[in-house]
Amino acid sequence: MSPTAPSCPPAPRTSWATSRSGTGPRPHCDKYGEGGYEINEGDGAFYGPKIDLQIKDALGREWQCGTIQLDFQLPHNFGLTYVNAEGGQEMPVVIHRAIYGSLERFIGIIIENFKGAFPFWLNPYQVAVVPIRPEHNDYARKVVERLEDEGIRVEADYADINMNTKIKFFKTMKDPYIVVVGDKEAEEGTVSITVRGQKQQLHGVPLETLVKMCNQMNQTHSLELIGEAPEV
Predict the structure, then answer these.
(1) What does pTM read for this prediction?
(2) What would the DSSP string read from start to end of 162-174?
(3) Do the beta carbons of residue 18 and residue 43 sit within 8 Å?
């Protein structure tokens, strides 16, 4: 949303005119495409034009979160100047920028939108490691260390309890990947992966392939989980 000047803006009208003619919000909003923005006539701040970012929540309600605002009033009030490339004195423009607006509101909207099942790159823990028995803990730690070396957020449960209990807990936590390791995986240097929302488990996935899958989702910010191991 791009608000325009109020009826009586205290900031100099020449500054408002300059912002609208070439550097203001209206021209730059064109990059969002037809229907991607709207002009809110007369709703600009008293000190200058602004761009408000409206986000819809899970119920379709709109909330203002981020905003970028030009302030012509403060430099005028404080007599701020700088030396331009030609050696002359010019008055700067102050930019107010709030990326999230209310952080709590933004986080609430994100949680509702994904119902707690965040994309891989956004999830607090991305991979959960489950050793089947205590004798598999050493290999499980190697898996954890390899993932952590790549900056992948990983947790593990080394407790001597039933494997299914561990898996059930991590499913409740909505971890994207639950990695199970046992005799076969430790011997072959592989892992078995339970993908969130997917019934079929991926067996015999080389550890380095898992690392590549995780890195790919982190780098591309994919909204979908990789549900099949790529061929080596």
Answers:
(1) 0.74
(2) -HHHHHHHHHHTT
(3) no
Residue 74 CA to residue 2 CA, distance in Å, equals 21
Amino acid residing at 193: I
> Coil, helix or strand for 130?
strand
Domain boundaries, the chain: 2-114, 120-220
CATH number of 120-220: 3.40.50.800
Q: Give Cβ neighbours of residue 170 (< 8 Å, ≥ 6 apart).
A: 128, 130, 155, 157, 178
The tokens for 210 are 């898992």
Q: What is the DSSP letter of 2?
A: E
DSSP element (H, E) containing 143:
helix 137-149
CB 39 within 8 Å of CB 2: yes
Q: pLDDT tens track of the chain, all 232 residues?
A: 555 555 555 555 555 555 555 444 455 556 666 667 777 777 666 778 888 888 888 888 888 888 888 888 889 889 999 999 999 999 999 998 888 888 898 899 999 999 999 999 999 999 999 999 999 999 999 999 999 999 999 999 999 999 999 999 999 999 999 999 999 999 999 999 999 999 889 999 999 999 999 999 999 999 999 999 887 5
Amino acid at 60: G
- Rounded to 5 degrees, what angle do the CA atoms 68, 106, 122 make? 110
Distance (Å, rounded) from C-alpha 197 to C-alpha 226?
A: 11
- The CATH architecture annotation of domain 2-114 reads 2-Layer Sandwich (3.30)
Spatial CA neighbour of 180 closest among 157, 148, 152: 157
